[in-house]
């Protein structure tokens, strides 16, 4: 536990990694001796085989080893690497880690973006107001702040709180409209390690202190502030003012914080902490997870996510302190942690961490190898650790597929970068073979990625692109079969992606732009459609399809097109690692905005908000049964996708809840409208509680109508959505308090709409989801239409009042085809949607032959039509869309459509001839 320099932070593109347990006490295992690494020569032979390939220009090293002079061998080995030509060393996992250059040398460590270091403030005996420009932090969504002692000393700093009559903290904002606002904290408090269960939210002063050995002591106190910016325009500038004093000069670190809290209940015990300090501790940092820290602590720090910023700072400035800091950290890790026995010597704390550390070390070594700060001894210790890590990665494949992919990627990089290692050829062959096999094992037959999270899928695909390009530089290549599998994975990513190019955040993920990954994939496998989506249409070829079904992955996406203004709806019954308890959940997007989002992840820590987001069904856009979370590995399926250019119909079911089978049907209109029908089939005759939830971002300004009980958003600009239940009198509706995590380590309060019914026997929910380009129309209404004596769980019909759009009727049969009447309509198929409005008339049907209104035929087909959409425009254009339809004017075979003013007919995008017979036209027939 050497008193070396210290660490910082940033989040790797591949790692939103699962929580890891803190290893218990470790037994020590000796590191490689000089003889084990360089070999031992005696009596004309190697009595200990070297791990160094001396035929790689290392003759002087070999002579020194044969002479038994390991000190000289180390010097000659360093000389070799200093003189070696530059070589591709891969990329760092992180290019930035706020605070790394200032705080790392003093062993002050922070997780990724949980608390982002901004500056250090100074107060003294006389009460002083200190100010800090916090614009960047606020613009990035961190509207809270965190204060911590810069040095371990007995001095206590005290800052005024909102309870104080003077010296109150303020956040002065300059807004986009030019106005200024000054806010007081909505919450401010401090936490005290010596009193872990005590809340100090009602105090006039916040205290900041840190002293003693280790990451904290009983005297450690940290302060937190939070400001409410809800409803304000875009912030152009933000300045934080704090008024405080200390018994002597005191330096206090200021961090931006994205975690919400309540001052009345925040204590040391219930606060997930991201920043710890070993400043001045002669024992240094032992690379283990501190008590109370987020579980990512043991994930991020041993992987050296901070190596990139330090190494690049040295490259750019030539300042030896940056190189010295990083070299000290690497050798300190070798001394303190690389000999811990976790899952094998040199494998601390697990194989994925080994792989990530190796990748960062290799990239750093390419920069550090010429630094005067790198001594022969330090160089040898680093190379020994890398060699032993590669030996571990050759024989060990642990964890999920993305873990193993990263392990073999690190092995490949080591083999290519260090031909001086004797087993480099074997490592190279092992890595390429394993990576091809893993690509096949990690994807379903339909091309979907087996882990139910878009962040991991994107990162997994992106790393394969990096690998393919790296291999190409060094005369290696994946097989055609592997390339074909990678192309299918790319298509899966493309279909999951929102129309604006971002991922939909399902599973353990956060919003990320997927386009660069799609573009690079498309260029790698020569796929013009991937390139088109990856460049937002700037190049490539627009995909020939819109909606997509992945039956093996158990996911379907219904979209109207590929431009940012198009609509998108995703439904899943997926399972696998990182899946949330969100079976049959919907995420929806329209007119440039996610309107029904996934609510994110926040953290892997044991925080009740994170638990709610990741492990509750209530936090997703689906139905929770009997207040119990689903079992996401239960049986389920996306049973069907019927799609044409006018609409898509998705059918799905899940057995993820013990109480009842949940079936969900979604009609998605390309014109921008969704109808969701849910059917619950309980396994007994008991009464069950069903809660259908719809979630929105915190800035949605959600409201709930009293009559129709419609939930309506009111964003400051752009798109909105109205959620309208079909049976307002049969459900209790409320707006409830939930959470939204816009990124890892950030969480906000958010309202969601809850519709609850408690009943025995089969029951249904039918819901209209109506997006709008601007303000939502609050006159929208849904009325249930009786279907004779048929109960709603067998067939449902709705009358829709759609405001300026017009009126419509919707019908769905949950059973086999049968002719049924509802309102003015009679229909014999499985689904009907008929709309009349300013744009004209439209009829959409699935698996039917006849649609009548007031006894008069509107559409009649000699044979059942799988899917048909008819739109009759005011200009006399009749558009007909449907799978398997062919042009035909034969009345004996063609579909009869009633329209008096047809001027032309367009079938599946192509104008075709038509035959008129009175008020009927014939232009298309079912095959």
TrEMBL record:
Tell me if Transferase is a UniProt keyword of this record: no
**Limits of the Carbohydrate-binding module family domain:** 181-274
Q: Which GO terms describe its cellular component?
A: extracellular region; periplasmic space
**What broad class describes the main subcellular location of this protein?**
periplasm
Q: Which positions, given as ranges, span the membrane?
A: none
Residue ranges of the Heparin-sulfate lyase N-terminal domain?
Answer: 281-520
Q: Which UniProt keywords apply?
A: Lyase, Periplasm, Secreted, Signal
Localized where?
Periplasm; Secreted
GO terms for MF: lyase activity
* The Heparinase II/III-like C-terminal domain, residue ranges: 575-742
The record's listing under Gene3D superfamilies reads:
2.70.98.70, Chondroitin AC/alginate lyase
Q: Which residues form the signal peptide?
A: 1-29
Q: Name one Pfam family in it.
A: CBM96
Protein's name according to its UniProt entry? Alginate lyase family protein
